[in-house]
Amino acid sequence: MHTYLLAVFVYPCLLALLCVGAGLLVDRVAGGWLAAALLPVVGAAALIALSQLSTYSVVAARATPYAMAAVCVCGFALGRHRVMGLVRRWRSLGWRLTLPVLVYALAIAPVLFSGQPSFSDYGALTDSAVHMIGANYLISHGQSFAHLDLRNSYGEYIHDYYADSYPSGADTLFGGSAFLLPISLIWVFQPFNAFILATAFGPAWMLAGRAGLRGRWAAVAALTVTVPALVYGYDLIGSVKEITALPMILALGVLVSTHRRWLTGDLGAVVPVALIAAAGVAAIGVSFMAWVLPAVAVLLVVLGDELRARRLRRSRALLLVAVASTVGVVGALGTWVGVAGSLRVAQAIAATSSRGNLAAPLAPAQVAGTWLSSSYRFAPKSGALTLSSALIAITLLSALVGLGRLLASRQRALAGWIVLTLASAVALTVYGGVWTDAKLLVLASPLVLLLAWAGVAVLRRSRLPAAAAAVAAVIAGGVLVSDALQYRGSDLAPSARYAELASLDAKYAGQGPALFTDFDEWSLYELRDVDIGGPDFTYPPVAEATLATGHGAFVRLDSAAPASLRAYRLIIARRDPATRRPPSAYVLAWQGSYYQVWRRLTDAPSAITHVELNPSHGYACWRIGRLAALAYRDQAHLVSAVAPQILTIPVNRSRLTDWRRDTYGVNLDRPGRLTASFWIPRRGVWDLWLQGEIMPVVQVSIDGHRVATVADQLDGNLSNPDTTPPLPARLAAGRHTLTISRGSLSLAPGNGGTAMLRSVFLTPAHGPRAEPRLQRLAPDRFRVLCGESLQWIEVVPDAPTQPPGPVTRVAAARPGPPRALPRSLGARLVAAI
User: Which of 50, 224, 280, 658 is 20 to 30 A from 731 (CA-CA)?
Assistant: First the structure.
């Protein structure tokens, strides 16, 4: 609860103070013309610029949090009179203060109502793991990458992203602010995204006012402009770059449309505009220039008008341009210094054929902000799709009316900016792929919603007030219902499992490198101090890339040459009796509810041969004789891993009530029940294990007695399912009935999340058959292994100091005659076979 309160409530308040304080300092430099609604956005932009500069060196990087705090204190000190004025009239501000808090609550709703530290839409996009380790690394080490271990996943990720000009503006703001609190970055990642999205409300409200709306109408319009369905979906998956860029884009629109307040003022008046542009470039790279250039084009036209009207001298205009350019370059210095790399990154992202986490290209109609589905990645079901189409059509029609109104009114700067910005986004789709097109739709969606509300303003001024109310209800209702569906369908990260990983990182810090066999790229952050490598990660360890068949695939340690694992002092694996024990050179050092840590013995020799077996099929005795012959030749012994006793409960033959089977197993997406019968050979305590992806609450019972309540058990990958911690149950010998049930649906976060059961099995809770055990034998005793249920057999040298002979892989697929054995042992072995 302490961590939850710090993450969800204390951290956003701290971040608000930092951003408002920095905004007050910029306002003082600009001449005091900034509207209060812009202070958080401009302050965030200033802190991004500051953190980009401070992370150039290790010493300055570690001072980033304190530099942010100093800027905040200076801002409040210099802007104290303005702060006191805002405090005195806080009653008149009313909803302008409360609605940004509402936006924050909506953006973090799955975590907020779960009552525990977490982050949402777990498994939808693992890029958030990169931003977590990047934020931690840049504040701890700055732009220093020479000491990284590039043979392992952690070093590869940091180097291939941040040493190659990957945009880091959002990460340095995130890391610099979060380091001021004693809390893990993994728990404040979602609050950071939610807060940054909430800062977009101020610019959205000001734009709604420029579009002709006032009071509550402007408030509702600003709310929906800030959280359209696509934006909300990207917030839930932690797409931090786009979420950070969004308030910068809306702030640019405000500054363009209110140019008369600052363009002819002091030279410092252009600083906020330049900082906003620089922060956007730092957050998403040089591609943000596609959003800056429309604003620059409109401002140049306005500047030309001022020059022709002789309200502005040419020398002063040149000075304004020079100041803006200088601040823009310095504020995103890291991006501009490495502009070649930044362009390369942008081109690589635009040219990629990968769809990322998208099952199909997003529908262009999603830009309208309504999508009645539990995820923006999937089309609504038939009835919901028809309703979505109708709501989208009304929204787009209203947007056309609003665009016509802006073009015909005096808001030509605003209309020109919107038209040029949307045209720029459309033009970029010609050069981009599915992945980048989706990002463009996300960033363009608030502008389309803004135009739709401009259309509502036209109806309000006409003689059709009822029509205005109806269209407003369609726009606002479509957006909020779409967001509610995504809230309910969001998966939450398994907090207990990550807490266990964090304890492992503290326990084994500096004792790596460690090989991690579970597909979980968020472990890169939680195990950052043990130099982690994941063979199924996007960046697998260089020497162990073949241990998995691809990203997210199952890791098979048996496919590694025994000597190749010597570099790994630790192997961290999920606690799952159905998986194979690591090689004999490793001993179990620690076991928790979710993970096991295996430590390599210091003098343990590498096996000469490691042969993977199928415990359920056995292994032909003559083949074991082959291994015995090899062991005798190389003066070695046999080591086998005896499989634990596993009783599988046949889920595929179970009786289902209101549930159905599909490709991945039994779908538990609605209230229902599974009933299966099984037999226990002897009485005692047995551990029940469930495999699948189970986000909502399900009840597990045996013979009518509740065993456990299971929820939040996710691994984020249906192809490589999660295994729950063991559920102990004392059972008598004989037949029993397992029941798994789910009650009525609710509005609880994650209640509509992933619910899939793959398999169920039992193991003895205690005794020799509870865990895999090693068996060491001399070659002439190999017959003991015949008929045993084994996970693998190794041929291991007798003397630890003796260098191993050449690694031999024994083919196990095709039978053949046994090898000729040494005369001293051969007769006995052949006779035995």
Answer: 658
Residue 523 has pLDDT above 50, yes or no: yes
Q: Which residues contact 774 (CB under 8 A, 6 or more apart)?
A: 581, 584, 639, 640, 641, 642
Which strands form 595-600's sheet, in the order they lie side by side? 532-533, 514-516, 570-574, 595-600, 586-591
Instruction: Report whether 445 contacts 366 (CB < 8 A).
Output: yes
Question: What average pLDDT does the segment 571-585 reach?
Answer: 93
Q: What is the pTM of this model?
A: 0.91
Helix (H) / strand (E) containing 93: helix 90-93
pLDDT digits (tens, 9 = 90+) for 759-815: 999 999 988 888 889 999 999 899 888 888 899 999 999 865 444 433 333 333 333
**Where are the alpha helices (H) located in 650-714, listed in sequence order?**
none
Residue type, 142: G
Per DSSP bridges, beta strands 647-649 and 636-642 are: unpaired
CB 36 within 8 A of CB 27: no
Tell me the pairing of strands 514-516 and 570-574: parallel
Is the pLDDT reported for residue 719 higher than 90? no
Max mean pLDDT range (177-191, 341-355, 633-647): 177-191
- What pLDDT does residue 799 have? 62
Residues 370, 450: contact at Cβ < 8 Å? Answer: no
Q: Please answer whether residues 723 and 656 qualify as being in contact, where contact means their C-beta atoms are separated by less than 8 angstroms.
A: no
Compute the CA torsion angle 307, 310, 314, 316 (nearest 10 deg): -110
**What values do phi and psi take at 664, rounded to 5?**
-95, -10
Q: Which two tokens stand for residue 659?
A: 């549930």
Please name which of 584, 522, 618, 668 lies closest in space to residue 812, comparing C-alpha atoms.
618
Candidates 625, 621, 588, 571; CA nearest to 819 is 625
Least trusted range by pLDDT, from 44-48, 182-186, 612-616: 612-616
| pLDDT value of position 618 | 62
Q: How much of the chain, in percent, has pLDDT values that exceed 90?
A: 68
Sequence-separated (6 or more) residues with CB below 8 Å from residue 268:
29, 30, 31, 323
Sorting pLDDT into bands at 50, 70 and 90, what band is 401?
Answer: very high
| Burial group, residue 84, by CB count within 10 angstroms (0-12, 13-18, 19+) | exposed
Q: What is the per-residue pLDDT for 617?
A: 67
Question: Which two structure tokens, joined as six digits, stand for 557?
Answer: 């340690």
- Whole-number pLDDT of residue 56: 87
Residue positions counted in the chain: 833
Residue pointed to by tokens 């017959």: 783
Q: Which residues contact 320 (CB under 8 A, 6 or more apart)?
A: 263, 267, 270, 303
Rounded CA-CA distance 532/524 in Å is 7
Assign 515 to helix, strand or coil. Answer: strand
Helices 185-198, 169-178: axis angle to 10 degrees equals 120
Of 222, 193, 220, 217, residue with least CA distance to 207: 222
Contacts of 824 (CB under 8 A, 6+ apart): none
Q: Round to the nearest angstrom and report the end-to-end CA distance of the chain.
A: 63
